[in-house]
């Protein structure tokens, strides 16, 4: 019986890779003064429909629980964040800088590389309206990728101004219920024939094309770009008005991170959503955030051989050539572990050659041979790299292995 | 809208506590040569009913997904482990020593302290039949608790022999379908009136009472106890035949860890289950394991004030007394972070007194004041503990903060 389609098993090597990725995420966010939070992987269904409308239900793992509650496995973190911030924002100084690494779930049609779960770094900055907050958040997104060894040759942040498009549509008196279609057409500008986009845009086509082809003025973007330059991150972004972030709730600068090769889907995306907390949680606080999944990033890091965590290893292997001294060997094993040394020994009678083989396979640097000499208070310590063996008094064993 | 009943939100302080607990779990398991794995939080329902029978469905979060699959949120890790080991055991040397920290879910009637989710350290040792493996696993359970600073004054492992009871029931020709009732009565021996237990045990009562009151011979337990003594862990267990571990699949030594005060529910429990992998995954490998939840352990550690992770803090706060120099300040902030220093600055114009206050509240050791002096290539560095302030050349800033 395999795992469910779209769900991953993490065998030790995969788990080590995932944990190394999480560690880098955590370390970078903490360097920016973000602190970690988490919420439940199951929430009331209404939390998601309230944000995204009834359409979202088609993508959710949702059901009615034994208490007759309509519930859903979390498909994104923002609704949980909004709920938690609404309940407790008074306890925290502003700006609130929080991050989380939830596993999120969506029932999607299976496609190449698409999974039904992934882990997602979520970084959100709440309670700060200034554009310096946008600069801070985008810098964190850039530095998160740089922390893995990726450079401006590897990725770029596509920077856009969602509010610019909203103002544009308002100035053309386009009714709000048609905005989504326009955003979709703009979003797909690079990926579908110009005629098709023109058809979708109708009378707006010429003006939109002009903006997409030649850019437009945005004071917001000027300020954010100057902020990034002040931080020495001027090579990490380009202005790109095709980035609109489909979701209805964005209200300002939006951005997505892409691999420069164009081979992969977006690595990360986010932006400002100043009205969302009010709509979801009833708390009127400006906010912005981004999400970065582990799947696309993981593929890129593997391709570029940038994240190669060492497989877990032990430092010392206790060799038991003679079962007579198993109890003494076990006592020494315990002393090593008590001293913080990762150590192991055979759990049943094993030929000595196979024990040394295990020691090497497990990555041990030293073998500690416990035999009749233990009666004189000594053990033999063999350095596995050069196979040199010396007799060591028991009270010198820990210092020898730690030195 | 709160979280679902029985589900926890982890605000930053709770999340820091949880992460510190996980870190200690990981470090101890790794010292014992265990490596981490993980599996999906959603599995086919059949994976659980195959192990525990149809009765388990009443406790599961289960539903039919959009692909018409009967699925369940994982209620324990062992079925996933059995599935993963069955699929890939040939790729791993025996014994396999694996651990995981899954979140698991059960729909239980709400009681004091009962949640519907918790995190659980699972340590399993697969492919080793010798009793030294039991010693190894129980030692890991003991050392996991010792790693938090708990001692033999705080907790004890209650050690029992499930196979002893199986042999006993067989010798009395008790049909297998009555075993569960007997195990239930033995398990509750300490918690219900003797007459009630006698009634449940019927003709077995006298002999069972004799064993529970005076103990019985078990070579298995003798060997395991000697093994624990050899490791210097003789003060951490007591033999206790009331421990039977209700689940049908245990086949040898079983154990539970309890707080000595008797105030809390079991901290951990496990034992040998040599037939389970064959029954679940079709792979005949001896195995044993234990689980330790984060809730009871967390309560004990809080009560004893043993795990008090420092709240996340920054090291340096960049003070901007004059907005004229914000860009320069942002550049310096970036340099600090690039050097691995956790640092922050105000994201909008802020009174200087309030900036120093933020620096202190955030736990910064140093404030870096960026003002007109930046034109001469210097900043003021204030040590917040003694409020001493010195002018530092820019190229000496990182060494000063790191020294």
How are the SSEs placed, and which strands pair?
The structure is a homodimer of 403-residue chains.
Chain A: H1 12-31, E1 35-36, E2 42-44, H2 45-52, E3 62-64, E4 70-73, H3 78-88, E5 96-100, E6 103-105, E7 117-126, H4 131-146, E8 155-161, H5 162-171, H6 179-187, H7 194-201, H8 205-214, H9 219-230, E9 237-239, E10 253-259, E11 268-272, H10 276-281, E12 287-293, H11 294-303, E13 316-319, H12 326-338, E14 343-344, H13 352-361, E15 366-369, E16 378-383, E17 388-393, H14 397-402
Parallel strand pairs in A: 1-5, 8-9, 13-14, 13-15
Antiparallel strand pairs in A: 2-4, 3-4, 5-7, 6-7, 7-12, 8-10, 10-11, 11-12, 15-16, 16-17
Number of domains of chain A: 2
How would you describe the shape of chain A? elongated
The gyration radius over C-alpha positions of chain A equals: 28 Å
Count interface residues per chain for the largest interface: A-B, 90 and 92 residues
Low-confidence stretches of chain A: none
The oligomeric status of these chains comes to: homodimer
CA(first)-CA(last) distance of chain A: 48 Å
**Mean pLDDT across every amino acid position of chain A:** 94
Report the top-level CATH class of the largest domain in chain A: Alpha Beta
How would a textbook summarize the main sheet of chain A? 9 strands, mixed
């Amino acid at each position: 019986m395999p795992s469910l389609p779209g769900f991953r098993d993490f065998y030790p090597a995969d788990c080590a890779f995932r944990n190394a990725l999480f560690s880098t995420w955590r370390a970078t966010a903490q360097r920016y003064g973000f602190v970690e939070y988490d919420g439940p992987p199951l929430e009331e269904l209404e939390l998601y429909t309230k944000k995204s409308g009834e359409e979202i239900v088609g993508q959710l793992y949702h059901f009615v629980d034994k208490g007759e509650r309509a519930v859903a496995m979390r498909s994104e973190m923002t609704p949980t964040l909004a709920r938690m911030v609404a309940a407790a924002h008074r306890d925290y100084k502003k700006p609130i800088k929080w991050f989380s690494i939830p596993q999120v779930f969506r029932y999607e049609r299976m496609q190449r590389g698409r999974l039904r779960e992934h882990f997602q770094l979520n970084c959100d900055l709440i309670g700060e309206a200034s554009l310096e907050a946008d600069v801070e958040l985008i810098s964190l997104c850039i530095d998160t990728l740089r922390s893995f060894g990726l450079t401006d040759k590897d990725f770029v942040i596509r920077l856009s101004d969602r509010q610019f498009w909203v103002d544009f549509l308002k100035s053309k008196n386009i009714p709000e219920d048609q905005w989504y279609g326009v955003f979709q057409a703009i979003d797909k500008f690079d990926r579908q024939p110009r005629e098709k986009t023109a058809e979708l845009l109708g009378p707006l086509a010429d003006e939109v094309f002009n903006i997409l082809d030649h850019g437009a003025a945005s004071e917001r973007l000027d300020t954010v770009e100057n902020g990034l330059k002040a931080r020495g991150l001027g090579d990490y972004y380009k202005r790109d008005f095709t980035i609109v972030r489909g979701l209805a709730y964005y209200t300002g600068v939006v951005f997505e991170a892409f691999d420069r090769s164009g081979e992969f889907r977006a690595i990360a995306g986010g932006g400002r959503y100043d009205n969302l907390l009010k709509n979801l949680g009833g708390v009127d606080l400006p906010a912005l955030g981004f999400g970065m999944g582990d799947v696309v990033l993981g593929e890129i890091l593997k391709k570029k051989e940038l994240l190669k965590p060492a497989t877990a290893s032990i430092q010392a292997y206790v060799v038991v050539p003679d079962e007579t001294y198993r109890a003494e060997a076990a006592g020494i094993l315990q002393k090593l572990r008590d001293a913080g040394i990762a150590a192991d020994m055979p759990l049943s009678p094993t030929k000595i050659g196979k024990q040394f083989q295990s020691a090497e396979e497990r990555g041990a640097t030293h073998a500690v041979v416990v035999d009749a000499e233990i009666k004189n208070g000594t053990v033999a310590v063999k350095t596995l790299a050069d196979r040199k063996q010396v007799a060591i008094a028991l009270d010198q064993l820990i210092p020898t292995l730690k030195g």
